[in-house]
Design goal:
12 strands; alpha+beta; 388 residues
């Protein structure tokens, strides 16, 4: 695919060109040959690329709206708008335009594009061959007869695309086409209405689904609460065990002191008896208080050991602190400050933004990932994005 971006010089209208205007700001895709030129407005082109990329698992069709003009033997076809047929079942072997489908098209045409006419149709089928199936060709002849109607085919997986016209008794693939940029309020209003309808539809959720969702949330919250309380119960159990151990140690100390006292009394009695029988020399009695202190020193390490174990168990159960909201916001601001803000200008596309700022289209993917959007998302003048 050859892509050329340029701005055509303004010229005075000639012939019946005064009834239409050839765009100045255009992007050429492929090679333009012969006496037929196809122009598709950027809003319509982006919209078709988006619905194609969103339906990679099934086929989808759309009606193309715009106008057809002639000048000095050259055919000019302008695709200004598109209306998706999301309810149709599409495949290479099956395309069925029912009366209900056409009623939907006429309703949208009258509501949003009253001054435009049907100029063709769009088809996106995963795995579709660019050599059109006979069912597709016959569908074009049945509903879009004449060489002033086109078929725009897009393969969503390989991103291959091409326009077709009925020429010399067959569907002929066109070598190239133009994407042009200009004010397109009709298509813009249609896209805004479509987005509002989708948002409203997503809000109208079934009550049963809401109740079920709420129950799941409550159940999840209860489980999280139980998880948070579990360390407290465990810590309380450890404290009880430590208290029991401390009481046991106290009882042991009292018992040891009592035994020590008995030994001291027995020793004093023995010494007094010896004094009376053997010699009149005074014998210094054993200091009972010193023995009690020695006994207490022997038991104190066991108390310290038990208290240390309790503290270690409690420390294991203390959850790690999570970063505060202020730290998280500061980290986000630091990340955002590393990127440049860019305001969308009229006529901008991801390709044009990448070329303007980096001189290459290889940055498109990085720009889209940074702004959490796809290459085919619609962008509007005044919208702000970040550049890597």
């Amino acid at each position: 695919m050859i892509e050329i971006v340029y701005e055509k010089e303004k010229q005075k209208p000639e012939g019946n060109e005064e009834f239409f205007r050839i765009p100045n700001n255009i992007r050429q895709i492929g090679e333009i040959e012969g006496t037929q030129k196809i122009y598709i407005e950027d809003y319509a082109y982006t919209y078709l690329c988006r619905i194609s990329s969103e339906n990679t698992g099934r086929g989808i069709a759309a009606i193309l709206l715009g106008q057809a003009n002639w000048k000095e033997g050259i055919s000019y076809l302008f695709v200004k708008s598109a209306v998706a047929l999301s309810d149709m079942e599409i495949s290479e072997e099956h395309v069925d335009f029912t009366q209900e489908t056409w009623n939907h098209v006429y309703e949208k045409n009258k509501e949003y594009f009253p001054e435009q006419e049907i100029v063709g149709w769009f088809l996106s089928v995963p795995g579709c061959s660019m050599e059109l199936h006979e069912v597709i060709c016959q569908t074009h002849l049945n509903h879009f007869g004449g060489n002033d109607k086109v078929l725009f085919v897009m393969e969503p997986l390989e991103k291959e695309e091409a326009f077709y016209r009925y020429e010399d008794g067959k569907m002929s693939r066109q070598a190239g086409f133009y994407v042009y940029y200009e004010k397109n309020e009709d298509m813009r209003n249609f896209l805004v209405a479509q987005n509002e309808r989708l948002e409203k539809k997503s809000e109208e959720v079934d009550d049963g689904a809401v109740h079920s969702f709420r129950k799941k949330v409550e159940r999840k919250a209860e489980q999280e609460k139980q998880k948070k309380n579990f360390p407290l119960f465990k810590t309380a159990g450890v404290c009880v065990a430590a208290a029991a151990l401390a009481v046991s140690v106290l009882y042991l100390n009292d018992y040891q002191k009592l035994k020590g006292t008995e030994k001291v009394i027995a020793s004093l009695d023995k010494q007094e008896t010896n004094q009376r029988t053997e010699s009149p020399e005074a014998v210094t009695p054993v200091n009972a208080s010193e023995k009690e202190e020695e006994k207490e020193k022997e038991t104190e390490p066991s108390q310290e050991t038990s208290e240390t174990k309790v503290q270690e168990e409690e420390q294991k159960e203390i959850p790690k602190e999570t970063p505060s909201d202020a730290e998280a916001e500061q980290q986000e601001e630091t990340t955002a400050s590393t990127h440049t803000s860019y305001t969308i200008q009229p006529g901008d596309t991801m390709t044009r933004i990448s070329m303007k700022n980096y001189g290459t289209i290889k940055k498109i993917k990085e720009i889209c990932e940074l702004n959490q959007m796809s290459e085919n998302d619609t962008i509007y003048p005044g919208q702000k994005i970040l550049l890597p």
